[in-house]
Amino acid sequence: MQDVEFAAGLRPDGLPAALSDPRRLAAVEATGLLDTGPEEAFEDLARLAGAVTGCGRAFITLVDDHRSFWKSCVGVPAQRMEERQSSVRDSLCYFLVGLAGDPFVVEDAASDPRTRDHPAVVPMKIGAWAGYPILGPGGHVLGSLCVIDDSPHVWRPSELGSLATMARAVSNEINMRTSLATVQDALATAQEALEQSNTLARSLQDSLLPPTLQQVPGLEAAASYLPAAGGTTVIGDFFDLFHAKGPWWCTVMGDVCGKGVEAAKVTALARYTLRAEASQHLSPATVFEHLNSALIEQRKGERFLTAVYATFRLTPGGLSGRLCTAGHPPALIRRANGRVQEVGRHGSLLGVLPHVALADVRFRLGPGDALLLYTDGATDARARRTAAPRERPMFGEDALAAALAECHDLDAQGIITRLGSLLAEHSGNWASDDTALLVLRVPERD
Question: What CA–CA distance (Å, rounded) separates 285 from 366?
Answer without folding.
Answer: 24
